[in-house]
Amino acid sequence: MSHPENPPTLHAEGLTKTYGRRGAPALNDVHLTVPAGRVIGLVGPNGAGKSTLLHLACGLIEPTAGSLTVLGARPGANATHLARVGFVAQNTPAYGSFTVGEHLELGARTNPAWDASLAERRIRQVGLDPRKRAGQLSGGQRAQLALTVAAAKRPELLIFDEPAAALDPLARKGFLNHLMEFVRELGASAILSSHLLGDIAQACDHLVVLCDARVQLAGDTGELLARHARLVVPRHRFDRLPAGIEVIAAEHGTTHTTALVRAVGPPQWAAHPVEPVPLEELVLGYLTGATDGPAARPVTAADAGEGPR
């Protein structure tokens, strides 16, 4: 729980963003509170609204309706608030004609809380030559440069929009390791948007699942995993599940049904034939439930007669 002196990292009420007069909303009536001090994994399919939420959080765009606060204030409200947020956009953009050192000089000129010693130390640690132009760097090196520039602002919140999607596995692992080191060193919160659920599982302790322009699931990952499970029962018994269990998504086989289920109230799994559910299966279950029907709806006897999903 966040204390009064530590407002939520994000707080959205009825947040809606529509592009164009007649376009479908990229975000639709989003209600979300993320406590301070979390490393947040933001996941969902293409078009779910992830980048829109991050751009709203950075103050790059304005909501169509509703409200959003970041670190207790309107995003980008003033220069002071902008300095509290570090943003690494998709594909870790850098100025190709600028050297690594010139990127650090630009950061120092544009950020009042710039930590030159942190930036120089991290550049040395990852083996970047200050004289080398960004256009000559590998993808992994550009990602490390962008991460260093964002962190040397000494922000309270670091935001990453698919920063490691194009990196090879070794470069991605190095990027995530340094991301976590920065979070610990700065005492900052972080938001990591990614399609790579292994990265989310490795780095994040809070999860937000977006699909169909709405939040389908949000919470601390440990609590979410404790409240969900995989249930396997004979198909003919699927319409007689005990009270206290809600079905998120189900797959009907010839003889058995496998379902992602959520405990209503304190989990009491000992009485049921359930198995732990990994993070990837949890996310995919909610995405399936969002596209096949209302998320977290109880399954009825009529559902048990449906064919495979």
Structure characterization notes:
The chain has helices at 50-57, 79-83, 100-110, 116-125, 139-151, 169-186, 197-203, 221-227, 279-292, 301-304; strands at 10-18, 25-34, 39-43, 65-70, 85-88, 157-161, 189-193, 206-211, 214-220, 228-234, 245-252, 256-263, 274-275. The protein is elongated and about 70 Å long. It contains 10 helices and 13 strands. The longest helix is centred in the middle third of the chain and has 18 residues, at 169-186. A hairpin with a 2-residue loop joins strand 8 (206-211) and strand 9. The strands form 3 sheets. Strands 5-6-7-3-8-9 form a 6-stranded mixed β-sheet, with helices on both faces. The chain has 2 domains: 10-211, P-loop containing nucleotide triphosphate hydrolases (Rossmann fold, 3-Layer(aba) Sandwich), CATH 3.40.50.300; 223-304. By secondary structure, the protein is α/β, with parallel strands linked by helices. Helix 4 (116-125) packs antiparallel against helix 5 (139-151) and helix 5 (139-151) packs parallel to helix 6.
Inertia-based shape? elongated
Using the CA coordinates, give the radius of gyration: 22 Å
The ordered H/E elements are: EEEHEHEHHHEHEHEEHEEEEHH
Structural class: alpha/beta
CATH class of the largest domain: Alpha Beta
**Helical segment tally?**
10
Tell me the CATH architecture of the largest domain: 3-Layer(aba) Sandwich
Please summarize the sheet with the most strands.
6 strands, mixed
Question: How is the largest sheet built, in terms of strand order?
Answer: 5-6-7-3-8-9
Low-confidence segments, given as residue ranges, are 294-309
